[in-house]
Design goal:
Layout lengths: L2 H5 L5 H9 L14 H11 L11 E6 L2 H7 L5 H9 L2 E7 L7 H4 L13 H25 L3 E5 L4 H8 L6 E9 L15 H4 L4
Antiparallel strand pairs: 1-2, 2-4, 3-4
Bound molecules: flavin mononucleotide.
Length: 202
């Protein structure tokens, strides 16, 4: 990175490292607990992230107890089970297709936008799209709290939805292990694209 490029970032170097450069996806964790204050601080930070029509369809189910994990683990792919069984805290990130009902509150200057989502398939697609954006904010929020996240899409979504969201109608997107990284939490960093590989200009 040239000095001109480095100077273009407003975020201080320590924060850049915490959120991106030094942050890794953790596959093992120490026993140090992740308390409710951590999750509340993460929420307080990431709730300001943008979503279409301020819709905020992300929902988070915390899985901490042994009993709740027993319900979750069978739905995970086998390679994701051990680390999820031992992570200090597990969050199931989900989308709420019922978000349009809240739009008159969340987007009060144009309350009619809720009518754009009368078709269930459209509401569900928008819920997934915006909640997935918020899932990205969530991972960065975990890192901002000085913790490591282990996001996993390797699970049976229908199984998790049936187990945990039969009443709410939420749709699972991602399971995220959260904690302080343990020994051998990760292997070598995988390659990343260069600027010219992914950015075009017309
Ligand atoms: C949406 C998403 C799904 C993922 N699913 C899994 C998974 O099911 N199992 C797993 O071990 N890692 C999973 N990962 C972890 C990625 O492989 C990892 O974040 C990526 O290789 C970058 O690693 P790094 O942050 O250590 O550089 C997932 C990550 C994301 C963001």
């Amino acid at each position: 990175m040239t000095s001109a490029v480095a100077a273009a970032l407003a975020l201080d170097t320590a924060a850049q490292d915490l959120l991106f450069r030094a942050a890794r996806t953790a596959n093992s964790f120490t026993d140090e607990p992740v308390g409710p204050e951590h999750v509340q601080a993460i929420h307080d930070l990431i709730r300001s992230g943008p979503t279409a029509y301020n819709s905020q369809p992300l929902r988070v189910l915390l899985v901490r107890s042994a009993a709740a994990r027993t319900r979750l683990l069978p739905h995970l792919s086998s390679g994701n089970r051990d680390k999820t069984a031992t992570a200090p805290l597990v969050a199931i990130l989900a989308a709420d297709p019922g978000f349009p009902a809240e739009l008159p509150t969340l987007f009060p200057h144009k309350p009619w936008v809720k009518d754009y989502y009368t078709e269930q398939s459209v509401a569900e697609a928008q819920a997934r799209f915006n909640a997935t954006l918020q899932a990205g904010y969530f991972i960065l929020g975990v890192r901002a709290a000085g913790l490591a996240a282990g996001p996993m899409a390797g699970f049976d979504n229908a199984g998790v939805d049936g187990e945990f969201f039969a009443e709410s109608g939420w749709r699972s997107l991602l399971v995220v292990n959260i904690g302080r990284p343990g020994p051998d939490a990760w292997s070598e960093r995988l390659p990343r694209w260069e600027y010219a590989d992914v950015v075009a200009e017309v």
